[in-house]
Amino acid sequence: MVSSPHEAMHRIFQEYPGLFSGVSEVLGIDFPPPTSVTVLPNDLTETSPVERRVDTLLRLESEEGEPLLLAVEAQGGKDPHKPASWAYYASYLLTKYRLQPLLLVVCQDRSTAEWAAREVSFGPRQWPLLTLRPLVAGPHNMPVITKPAEVRKDLALATLSAITHATHPDAGVILKSMTTVLRDTPQNIADPIIELIAQGLGKHPAAQLWRKLVAVDLSFYKSYLSEEIRDEGRAEGEARRAAEDVLAILDVRGIDVPEADRERITGCGDPEILRHWHRRAVTAPTAEDIFEDE
Question: Would you put residue 258 in left (φ > 0), alpha (ψ -120 to 50) or beta?
Fold first, then answer.
């Protein structure tokens, strides 16, 4: 199953095709900046029933030399079968487009990144036929951008950096620098970045931090994520107030509320259930009795 981080790590190159220039510069590889970029179909399926799809495929053109085919793969873990697939992609792209292919693998953990960066040879040991050498971007070589001034220099690179450093100890500082800049960024530019980072952080703890920062620092944005966060906040506030009302009635009636029952009431996030408990709290002889129908 394709995960949200997987989608974000390659889709960002579709949203910001010029990002590869910043990434290649960080990786120390000299590629001229593209003068035009074309997003190509990612379906590499042949007439046989085997389906093969590269995550993102871009045609990069520059003032120097021939166009370049950039295949971007988001890799979430080590897969011993992947290098053979990547070699197939390269061979197929060269055959189909007659342009030189390049593979960029984007990872979120150092172990996977180091695995992906290995040279892999195909063919007999005595005479290898092919050698696969992917470029790899991950937490081991992407810059840790914690200053708003650095974010402003290249928003796309800063976004990719935030995604690849999802588990970095300074993730909070990294994400805060993003919201600081996005506050002053036009909404049509900021919204895709907000969504990409939310998608890229997946289920990492930093994802919840990002949601809180968006809710507080970017509360005026109307993106899908910000609306979802505000809806969640309203629901949480309603449930909290309903739980307080249940406890208030029991307190006024002088009914003791054991700690376990109190935690059950305050831990309930369903306003409808809390309203039911609220009605029962008016007449229930004990706190436990309000749960009788549950």
Answer: beta
Residue 127, SS3 per DSSP: coil
Statement: the pTM of the whole predicted model exceeds 0.85: no
Count other C-beta atoms under 10 Å from residue 12's C-beta: 26
Using CA atoms, how far apart are residues 176 and 36, in angstroms rounded to an integer? 32
**End-to-end Cα spacing for the chain:** 36
Beta bridge partners of 60: 37, 68
pLDDT digit string, tens, across residues 30-76: 778 888 888 888 877 665 555 578 899 999 988 887 888 999 999 98
CB 136 within 8 A of CB 109: no
Residues 85-123: pLDDT tens digits? 999 999 999 999 999 999 999 999 999 999 999 999 988
The token pair at 232 is 């969640």
19 Cβ neighbours under 8 A, 6+ residues apart: 12, 13, 156, 157, 160
